[in-house]
Amino acid sequence: MMKAGWYILNYHDVSWEQSPFIRAVGDSFSPDIFHEHVAALAKKFELVSVQEGWARLQNGDIDQPILSFWFDDGYAGVRKYAFPILEDAGVKAGMAVNSSFMLRKDFYWRLKLGFLAHVDGLRFLRQRLRTMGYKGGDSVRSFTLQNCSAEIIAVIDELFVRFTSEEMREDVFRHFDDVEGIRFLLDHGWEISNHTAAHYPVSDANEFQRFERQFAECESELEKSLGVPTRFWVLPFGMPFTDPSGTQVRFEEAEGKERALVYVGSKINQHSALHKHRLSRILVPIASANELLVSLSRLAVYKAG
Amino acid sequence: MIPDELSAEYLDLPDLDNNQIVLITGNQLRHKRFALRMIEEFGDQVVAWYQVENSAPRRFEGNQQAKNSAPEGLKAKLIKTAKSSKKFARQPGLWALFVAVVRGLLLKFRWQMHSKAIQRGEERLFGREVHRLQATMNRQPSIINPKDVNTAGFVAEIKALNAYFFLSLAGPLYGKELLDSIRGIAINQHAGHSPVYKGTSTIEWALYRRDLRCVSATVHQTTSGADNGPILRRSAPCLFPGDSPSAIFSRVVALGTELMIEVVREIMADKHVRVYPQPDGAGQTYLGTHMTPHVLNAIYRDHRAGWLRDEFVRLKQF
Questions:
Q1: Inter-chain Cβ pairs, chain A and chain B, closer than 8 A
Q2: Following CA atoms A167, A170, A171, A177 in sequence, which dihedral angle do they give, to the nearest 10 degrees?
Q3: Closest to A18 (Cβ–Cβ): which among B236, B259, B316?
Q4: pLDDT band at A274 (very low <50, low <70, confident <90, very high)
Q5: Averaged over B20-44, what is the pLDDT?
Q6: Contact check, Cβ <8 Å, A19/B235
Q7: Residue of B213, B230, B222 whose CA lies nearest to B188
C-alpha cells in the first residue's frame, strides 16, 4: 500500500546504449525495463505531469499516491525512447537540462571520469590528485565529488584530452539532446528545468557563489534557446552536502517566490506547507519493476527539519 | 560511440539525391525488428526487404548450386555430427567416433536451448514493439534462399532497384559483385566487438572470457569478409544486472539497429563519411565449429553465479 503524496521519480537516461562514458557512473535503463516500470507504476499510482503535481501540492496536502517522472542531464535517449512510452501512458514528464551539454560547450565531467576508468586513465589521475589530498585506496569517484574544484576539473579535462581524439570529443555530445530536441519536449508539454550549466556540485552553502553562477548561466542559455524561464532549479547530485537549510534560505532570498529548489531526498512530497520552494525526488535504483514498487512502499514522507 | 583505438579515414560517397535503401535480414524476431525500425525511420526510402531462409526455393541459377538434397541416412547424419566435433580428427577409432557423436549431440542440444532462450528474450524485449510496427506497416519481405544472394540474377535484381544503401543483419557473406552493384554503401550490423570478436557467436565468446568491455554492437561497411569492414559505429548495450546470456545478446542486437539508423541518417546528411578500418591481423574470426558445449555451459554457469551483477558493482567502484 503506497502512502499518499507526490512521488517524483528521478531517472537519467533511457536507451538501448550504455557507452563506456556512462556505464561506470550513470544510471540508465533500457526501453523495455523502463516500459515495465511505467506499466507497474500506473497500476499503483495516478501518473501526473510535473505541472499537475506541483499545482496540486500548492493547493493543499496530497491525499492519494500520485507520481511523476523527472529526467536529469538532458540525455538524447529520453526523447527517443522514454517519451513515446510516456505518451502511450498519457503522462508528461520533467527534464532537467545542463546548458553546456545541450549547447555542446562542455562535456559532463563525470562522464569523462567514467571514460578514464574505462581506458585505465585513472592511474594518472590518482597521481595528480595526491597533491590535492587524495590518499591511495580512496575512491576517486567520491573524492572528486566531495572536493570538486576548478583544479580537479582541469586535471580531468587534461587527461580526457590526452586519452581521446578530437573526433571523439565532438562525437560524445550525441549522448545529450540538443536545443531542437529539448524544444520538442517543451512543445509537447514537458517541464524543462534548470540543472546548472555544467553539473558541478554546487550545493555546499560555503560555495553559494558557484551555485549562483552555474544556475544563472544555465537560466540565461535556456531562456535564449527556448524562450521561457524555468520554474524549478534542480540540484546536481541532488542533495546539499553541508548546511542544507542554509542553501535553501539563501536560494529563497535570491529567487523569492519565483522558483523551487529540487533535491533528491528520497522522500514523498505530501504537506503543502513544506513545499512552497522545495521538492524532494526519489533516485530510481537499478531494479526491476517489482523491486521498484517495494522500495517506493518503504519511503517516508518529507518532514521539516 | 566511435572506436577511438583505431585510426580514422574518410570515404567520399557519391553525392546523389537517391537515398533508397535495400534491406536483407534473417527471419528471427530481431531481424524483423531491424527491418521494421528501418521502415519506421525511413519510410518509402526502403524500396525492398529480403528475408533469407534456408528452406526458400531457389530463384536463380548461379555458382552456388543447391547440393543434392536427398534425405540423409542415420549413418550419414552420425558421421556429419562426428565430423563437426573438432576432436574427431585426433582420436581415430569407434570409441572416438562415439565420443565425438555424443559431444556433437550435446552441443546441438545446448545450442538449441540457448537459441530458444534468445527467442523468448527477444519476444520479451521487443515483441511488443515489433507487433506494434507490424500492425501499422503493410510491408512484407521477399523470401530468398541464401544460395541465391551472390548469383548474377540477384545482383541484377538489386542493381535494378538503384539503391544507395544495402543494409544487412544476417545472411551469407556478400560477394564483390553484389556489393559493387550498390550505388552508395553497403553496411552490416554485427553483434560483436570488431575487430576483437568477428564471425559467429561473438557475444557468447566475450561472455565466456568475462570481457564485458567487448560485449558490443558494431556497424561497419560490408566487405566480402566476415565483420571486418571499416567500422562506422560501435558501442555497448544498456544491460540489466539480472540479464541472462540470451537477453544480453538480444540487447546487443537492439542497440546495433539503433546505431545503424544513426549511421544512415548521418550519411544521408553528409556523404563525407568517417570510417575506422580494421587492421589486418587484429582480433579473431570465430566459426560455428569453434563453439563447444563447454563454452555455453560456462557462460550460463557464470550467469547463475551472478557474475554480471558483480561486474557492474566492480565497474562503479573506482
A1: 78
A2: -170
A3: B236
A4: confident
A5: 96
A6: yes
A7: B222
pLDDT tens for A145-201 read 888 888 999 999 999 999 999 999 999 999 999 999 999 999 999 999 999 999 998
Cell of A14: 533511457
Residues of B in contact with A165 (CB under 8 A): 4, 8
Q: What SS3 class is residue B212?
A: helix
B4 touches A at CB < 8 Å: yes
The interface pTM score, or ipTM, of the predicted complex is 0.93
What's the pLDDT score for residue B90? 56
Closest CA in chain B for residue A25:
B316
CB contact under 8 A, B241 and A165: no
Q: Which residues contact B68 (CB under 8 A, 6 or more apart)?
A: none
Asked if the Cβ–Cβ distance from A30 to B240 is below 8 Å, we say yes
Number of Cβ within a 10 Å radius of residue A135 = 9
Does the pLDDT value for residue B64 go beyond 70?
Answer: no
Q: What is the CA radius of gyration of chain B?
A: 21
The minimum CA-CA distance between A168 and chain B, rounded to whole Å, is 7
Does A117 sit within 8 Å of B315, measured CB to CB?
yes
In this complex, is the C-beta atom of A89 within 8 Å of any C-beta atom belonging to chain B?
A: no
pTM above 0.90, yes or no: yes
Query: What average pLDDT score do residues A280-299 get?
Result: 95
Query: Is residue B74 over pLDDT 60?
Result: no
> Are the beta carbons of A33 and B240 separated by less than 8 Å?
yes
Q: Is the dihedral of CA A242, A245, A248, A249 positive or negative?
A: negative
Q: Identify each DSSP E strand in A163-209 by its residue range.
A: 191-194
In A, which residues are within 8 Å of B262 by CB distance? Answer: 174
Chain B residues 174-193 with CB within 8 Å of chain A: none
Chain B residue whose CA is closest to A117: B318
What's the pLDDT band for B65 if we cut at 50, 70, 90? very low
Give yes or no for a contact between A233 and A260, defined as CB atoms under 8 angstroms apart: yes
Could you read off the pLDDT of B171-224 as tens digits, one per residue? 889 999 999 999 999 999 999 999 999 999 999 999 999 999 999 999 999 998
Give the tens place of pLDDT for each residue, A5-56: 999 999 999 999 999 999 988 789 999 999 999 999 999 999 999 999 999 9
Query: Are the C-beta atoms of B268 and B19 separated by less than 8 Å?
Result: yes
Interface residue of A12, A23, A25, A164 to substitute, partner B, most B CBs within 10 Å: A23
How confident is the model at residue B102, as a pLDDT? 87
The per-residue pLDDT for A5 is: 95
Q: What is the dihedral of CA B206, B210, B214, B215, to 10 degrees?
A: 70
Helices and strands (DSSP H and E) totals, chain A: 15, 12
State CA A209 to chain mean position distance.
Answer: 20
Maximal CA-CA distance, chain A: 55
Nearest alpha-carbon partner for B37 in B270, B252, B269, B259: B259
* Closest residue to B316, CB basis, from A24, A28, A164: A24
- CA separation for the pair A156, A110 (Å, rounded): 9
Task: Answer whether A167 sits within 8 Å of B8, measured CB to CB.
Answer: yes
